[in-house]
Amino acid sequence: MTDFVATHLTPAVFADHLDDPSAYVYLSGSTETPDGYALVLHGSHPDAPGDWSALRSAYVSKLYVDPDLHGGGVAGALMTAALVDAAADGCAAAWLGTNRNNVRAKRFYVKLGFEIVAERRFRVGSVDCVDDVLLRVL
């Protein structure tokens, strides 16, 4: 996990996202003390579930909120903004993956109109992981 974070969540990686017009970064709170953020990538995604890989979609790559603020509306506001922008940008759907055991997150996404449509398996270091893939047609 440490290697993954050191490779994929660095300031340089986030700077690249901020420079990429297909990457939408949403921030809640202040830039000095953020309490949540989302990273959504618009375009065609070879990893998108089913036939969606050929269509323009919004991949919700990251959505994190300070655990002390869970249930307080921050995640909902971030996701709502992301979905509005995705639809306005011509995305046909929004999709994401979340850990199969993260019941709370899946309940949140289903409440926002997402449905579980697939699973994806991947490896982080020496750990095999399984995500449920959820999709919402826009």
Number of helices: 4
CATH class: Alpha Beta
Strand line-up across the major sheet: 1-2-3-4-6-5
Distance between the termini: 33 Å
The Cα radius of gyration reads 15 Å
Can you tell me the CATH architecture? Answer: 3-Layer(aba) Sandwich
What is the subunit arrangement here?
A: single chain
Series of secondary-structure elements, N-terminal to C-terminal: HHEEEHEHEE
> What does the average pLDDT come to?
89
CATH-defined superfamily: Gcn5-related N-acetyltransferase (GNAT)
Q: What's the β-strand tally?
A: 6
CATH topological fold name: Aminopeptidase
Poorly predicted runs: none
Number of domains: 1
Global shape: globular
